[in-house]
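>> received
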Amino acid sequence: MSCRKSIIVINVGINGKDMKQLVVLLLIAVAGIASISCNGKKKDQGQIVHNNVGLNLSHVDSYHVYLKYRQKIEGYQVTVDFSPRTSITHGQCCTELYMGKAILNFSKENSSFSVECEEFSDSSLICYVNSDKEYVPKNSQSIDLSEIASGDTIEVDYIPPKDQEYLSWNSPFYFLDMNFDGKKDLVINNMGCGYYGGNTYDVFSLSNSTPTKMVGYPFEQDGIKLNSDCEFNPVKKELILKVKDGVKMENVEQDSQFDGDPHISGSTINITPIMKSIAEGNARKLASLCSFPLERKYPLHDIVNSSDLIRRFNQVFDNDFRDRMKKSKPSDWHSYGWRGYHYGEDYLLWVYDSLYVIDYYSPQEKNLYEQLVKKEMGSLHESMRGQGWHPFACFKDKTDGSIIRVDIKDRKTKKKENFHIDPVALTYPQLQPFKLRGDEEFRLAIYPKGSNLGGKPQMLLEGYVEVGGSANYMDYIFKNNNGMEMRFGDNFFEDGKRLLNRKNGNEESSHEITPCYWLDLNK
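>> returned
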């Protein structure tokens, strides 16, 4: 029986860098299957290809090489038993390094120890470099591991930290007093494992005969590791742990372990302060922990900034919800992947680093909503009232000055023949104020600039929402019997501007629209 080579082509909607890493992982798996299936026995060598660089894997899982540093580091001769299994993007310049498990061995007269590392890489071992070579260390080597057999030794030059570089970018490991006790510690650089391709660091105390990993603040807290955004001040003897985008992380005790990965779901450091500020009625503190605007169900106004939240705090968070917060624990929050953390099984609050969704509506706010709905629908032409319609959104066309209102039909009054028949993709309706499921009926009415908003609209189109992708992007599509079609939604933005796409026959145009409130226009 002959052994055939297979080529797998996958077309998915991910970016180039993610695709590179996916190809590596898939080809590793294919290489492992091929090595067993050909002629019923393992091959001596398998090969994967990544960016035209071969990675020789004799047994996939067991492939390893030895790295021997030409220079002594702090008097130690250092060797590394390295098992590269993939590549990692280092920084935003797309330099890619081999990464994998490793055992680092340090030896000198009367002293030796070893440290195991799950995500070791060395910036002297590059498997791919793009055009931005200014970030690449001068003594880096582009290594083709397809030419190196498992068990072979590679001699490499050690890349030391730059002068006064306390959290080194390119040095794979180094010795530095990180806890200011007068003794040098071992710092292992997990290159590319932090935010935006930055680094994280593991620190080991060498005070005892056995290296001891340092845990707790400031080395690791709440799932956040020491990273390249942190601050090291040798004068003040201060090491400050920070999260994504340089936000300072306080040294606080957490009473539970959150269930998410902070690199995916964001930091949980603000969850306890958010609960506390709501429970205590501290509007100013809560405002400092929010990401604005906070969307409310139209025709309620969105909470646009800190001052707006402080003014409306008692309306949004009544005594019942504050009492609930007093009894709540951090363990009441659960990770939803890249969407962040939600509070409770009713998904009333959402946090990604900061509070960005409030889906709780107090009785006072519900009452205000009903009043506004009644008032808004009563202001329309009689032909537009009733029949189960409710206000959904309102926009001003910045191109021609027209007013565009969108209504949604009550589920109890929908016409079954008008259901949108595409599969319902909205898995997370709790993230939307209207909790759309994807089969709702909508209508869009257009009022030209200067026209009577209490009169009949110039144009009326029926529509539906299309929901797609893991992000649940929502696009609203409206049509009439004359061939007019209008679209707006999550996929209709350009340079931060919301667009309404108009199509009539062969004519097509895009108008910038901005949200507004019907009752504010109809005073």
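>> The two ends are 83 Å apart (CA to CA).
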